[in-house]
Structure prediction request, 36 residues.
Amino acid sequence: EKLSTDETKEMSDIQKSLSSLIKGGYVGKPARMKGD
Prediction:
């Protein structure tokens, strides 16, 4: 199955967001997107 460019970009953005949360030490806390 081949993803479209938009779908691939979305997945990449999600992975970046998760990485940011992990590096920020937010693992285990409610996932609330707040700009610091």
Summary: The chain has a mean pLDDT of 76. DSSP finds one helix and no strands in the chain.
